[in-house]
Amino acid sequence: MSTPDRPPTIALCMEYPVAQMGGVEVLVTELLRRLTTEFRIVLVSDDTPETLASAGLRESCVAHLPWKFGARRPGRAALLAQALSDHGVGLAHFHFGGTYCWDSRWPGRSPVLHLARRGVPVLSTNHLVHPPLEGYCGPHRPAWFRLGMLPSAWIAHLQILSAVRTEFTVSTRDRDAARRLFWPLARKIELMYHSKLDPACEPPPAPGPREPLILNVGTLGLRKGQILLLEAFDLIADDFPEWSVCCLGQVEQDDYRARLEAHPAYVRRRNRFRIAGFTPEAETVATMRRAAVFAMPSLSEGLGLSLQEALYRGCACVGMAVGGIPDLIVDGVSGLLAEPQSVADLAAKLAGLLRDPDLRMRLARGGQEHLDALAMTAPAMAHRHAERYRAILHC
After folding, report:
1. Which residue stretches of 102-250 are H helix?
2. Which value, to the nearest 10 degrees, does the dihedral of the CA atoms of residues 345, 324, 225, 180 take?
3. How far apart are the first and last CA of the chain?
4. Could you tell me if 354 and 240 are in contact, meaning their C-beta atoms sit under 8 angstroms apart?
5. Tell me, what's the pLDDT at 1?
6. Which residue spans of the chain are classified as CATH 3.40.50.2000?
7. Stretch (H or E) spanning 302
């Protein structure tokens, strides 16, 4: 409820801790910081008062409700809906890390449904639309098991779509894929880009000489495809002896790092292929502003915030043509696209960039212009969300 002296109360809901800093956490954190003057915000996340204070967010929300991803507690969805209602929430925005998050693999279980039944308007953002036979059970399951589970998961997500006013996706491909998969309610699925870039705080760099460095930023794990980058670099490294690769990002899978370091290509190139792991944001930004090339070899991707940041910071970029990467890279205009999971094509695109400084400069300039055209900044993102919230709340 809102009054002339009291802004409306909304809830921003995610299943992860803010410190995880993936796409979901970055977006929710940016919204929380930027909308506190317009809305009273209740945050739902897997956090404690201490972790919120450490992130500088404890004073940004009027209340915090804990929710742990994957926890099995009878009735917890109804309890969350009750708590949000008790806090006077007039609108709730649930952020899904994937299509079947928020207890939506089975019909009737999601807190989205419980809250909507109480008459509270709900929005959702799906940050990663899974292929039809993925996302609702382990990938190791046999095909017959996944096929058997699909109807239940499909119906459960249709229930989510029927309950929400709108479900946003973060890339054109995800929007189109979701509309095809959930065709009965395709009209409810829209595209809304997100960003953490703020030109007022960090102007884009001026053109100039760059370090002969191929940079990759992202969690170290199978989905991010660093092993493909290693194999591609191994194919061209002898032709470009002055170039090296650096991978920045926290380790998501220890066994994946072990696989990388045991790979024959890594053994050959270990002096020029550095796995740096987690680095402070200031160091990551500084490295991105001096690196000549940025590579995103992901197997799947929502939008690709680190790619967005690399474009803004003047890198010439190459990425696999998956997920939201083609939203950011228009091939030959704002970067280069490689065929999904093709080491040979990625190597060829990298070689083209490494041997042609004029191409790198042209693509770097095109990348910054493309982001401008798409209005991919944090202030613009917050404004788009606030407009949708106000329209629903009639304020």
Report:
1. 111-117, 143-163, 172-181, 226-236
2. -100
3. 11
4. yes
5. 52
6. 9-195+377-393, 211-374
7. none
Which residues, in sequence order, are bridge partners of residue 13?
A: 44, 94
Give the residue ranges of DSSP H helices in the chain.
23-34, 49-54, 76-86, 111-117, 143-163, 172-181, 226-236, 254-262, 264-269, 281-290, 305-312, 325-328, 343-355, 357-374, 378-393
Q: Contact 111/89 with Cβ under 8 angstroms?
A: no
Let me know: does 216 contact 246? Beta carbons within 8 Å.
yes
Higher pLDDT, 3 or 228: 228
Dihedral sign (CA 175, 329, 371, 224): positive
Q: Rounding to the nearest 10 degrees, give the CA dihedral for residues 170, 175, 181, 185.
A: 100
* C-beta separation of 261 from 220 below 8 A: no
Superfamily of domain 211-374: Glycogen Phosphorylase B; (3.40.50.2000)
Helix, strand, coil abundance in the chain, percent, nearest 5: 45, 20, 35
Helix 226-236 and helix 254-262, axial crossing angle in degrees, nearest 10:
10
Distances (CA, A) of 327 to 83, 272, 302, 308, 385: 38, 31, 10, 10, 20
User: From CA 281, how far away is CA 293, in angstroms rounded?
Assistant: 19
Amino acid at 6: R
So what's the pLDDT on residue 140?
Answer: 86
Tokens encoding 78: 């109804």
What is the second-level CATH architecture of the domain 9-195+377-393? 3-Layer(aba) Sandwich (3.40)
Amino acid occupying residue 135: G
Phi-psi region of 56 (alpha: psi -120 to 50; beta: other; left: phi over 0): left
**Overall average pLDDT of the 289-306 stretch:** 95
How large a percentage of the chain has pLDDT more than 90?
87
User: Which of 230, 345, 215 has its CA nearest to residue 286?
Assistant: 215
